[in-house]
Write a structure and sequence with these properties.
By secondary structure, the protein is of the alpha+beta class. Helices cover 34% and strands 34% of the residues. The protein contains 3 helices and 6 strands, in the order E-H-H-E-E-E-H-E-E. The chain has a 6-stranded mixed beta sheet, sandwiched between helices. Helix 1 packs across helix 2. It is globular and about 45 Å long.
């Protein structure tokens, strides 16, 4: 089963796995958006979010590669996660006009390939920060 959380239930963190951790990450992303706004490339937001992670003692890996298995063989190409936070949460950073079905499908594939269960799509490209939690159960 796949759960995609809409922002309207943002504060109901006790019903989601790693709710406290994802809440903190979303809050730090909001801080980045508040400070620099929209209109930059994704890499700028990744750099700023990395500063927030360091300043707030968030355990993370940036641009972590994951192998992709095809019929028992590893492909030459790897999936590279923007961030892995707390060793359990995939973060996909976007700077576009919205979060689309393709972004959600991509995150589901990334979760499957990484054997992780929780993904956060964070989009800095709108007037207000937008996000989606994607949970594989």
């Amino acid at each position: 089963m796949i759960i995609i959380e809409e922002p309207k239930s943002f504060y109901a963190n006790d019903k989601y796995p790693l709710g406290k951790e994802t809440y903190k990450i979303i809050g730090l992303a909001m801080e980045v958006h508040k400070e620099i706004g929209r209109g930059f490339l994704e890499i700028v937001y990744k750099d700023a979010l990395e500063i927030e992670f360091n300043d707030n003692n968030i355990l993370y890996e940036r641009e972590k590669p994951f192998e992709i298995n095809y019929k028992g063989r590893l492909l030459k190409r790897k999936y590279i996660a923007d961030f892995i936070a707390h060793q359990q949460i995939i973060l996909e950073i976007k700077a576009q006009s919205g979060i689309y079905d393709e972004d959600i499908k991509q995150t589901i594939n990334y979760l499957a390939c990484s054997n992780l269960k929780i993904g956060l799509i964070i989009n800095f490209g709108e007037e207000s920060l937008s996000f989606r939690r994607v949970i594989l159960t």
